[in-house]
Every structure is written in structure tokens, then in C-alpha cells.
Sequence to fold (218 residues):
Amino acid sequence: MTTATLGLADTLKSQTQNAHTAAERHEFQGRVMRGMLGTAGYAAQMGQYYLAHKALTDALTKASDDPRIAGLIRPYHAYPQLFEADLRHFGVDPVSVRALPATQRIVAEIAAADPLALLGFTYVAEGSTNGGKYIGQALRRALNLPGGEGLSSLDPHGEAQRERWHAFRGSLDQLAMDDAGRQRLIAAADRYFAYVIELFDELSQAFPANPANLPLTR
Fold:
């Protein structure tokens, strides 16, 4: 089946697959999941995700009058409070988290994005919650967090995960747009994956093989 006959959600998945795989297999992510960086590496990663998620939540709220945003975005897509609770569990004040260069760039792009680009960013952010549940399970073992303390932002939808993700995908497929709009949305999704890779590169430098067990703060 060609992308011309695919729905938008499947086209997004197909055209961003290489970037998705590169992010998923990045060595920094692997070290975090194996517990090699302790809670510091995980908290630093979540701090950057928090800043990006908050920027995206703010931008979607500002664009909520756009029918394309209103048709796809639900209150449960915003959960900065979960990131904040996770960071505080590890002794990090969310206000103190400073944006690394990669996060500074994506936050600026999110603030300037049009509604279709915002939906492209959201596709990646929401899609990550599918794997987040399994990453959380691995981190419970690797970081000795049997009760899942500090991991709530990885699984924001709980038992409703599958239902909400399918609803989001279905709504994407119902969007009416021209080819230029479609490509703008896809390009934004690909850009968000690129951001994650850039972030992991920067975090790898901040957290070498034997880092001090300290989070990134101002």
C-alpha cells in the first residue's frame, strides 16, 4: 500500500519510522533504561520532556479555537502536573529545570507553530505514551522503584491508553487538508523525533559513563 492510499495516522507512522527507530535505540535511552545513570539520568531526561510538554500544552491551549485543534485535543492530553510530581519525587524543583539547547530550540518552534504543526508535534508526544508504559516497567526494576514512584508521566493514561490513542489516530484520519498542510503536519512530527535525538545527544555529554548523581538544575 502506498502512502497515497494510507490514512494520515498510518502515513505519519510510515514516514517517521526511521527517526522513531533512531530515537528509540539511542544509547542514552538504553543507559537510562538499564539503570546505568541512576535516578539522575532519568530525572534529567524527564525535566527536558517536561519543558517541551508544557510548551506544547500552552501552545495547544492558545490555539484551542482552531477547529482542527478542538477536534483532536482533549483535557487528558495535558499532564504537566505528572511531570512535576515525578521531578519532585527525585528532589528536583520543576521551576529550577533549565532547558538544554535542543529543548530551547523545540520550545521556540512550538511557540511559533501553526495548528497543523502543533498536531504533528502532538502525534509524537502522544505516541510516546504507548511505549512509556513498558519503559516504566523496565525502570521499576532498573531503578528499584517497585511502586512506580516518580514514573507517572510515562503512563499518563493508564488503562485508557489504547482507547485514547486509537481515538486520536481516528481523529487525525478525519482531518480535511490539502497536500501542503499534510506535509507540514508530517514534517513537524519528524522534527519532534529529531528533537528527541538531539536531546539524547546532549544528555549523553552531560551524563558520561560515571556521572555525579545530580539532576540538571539552574
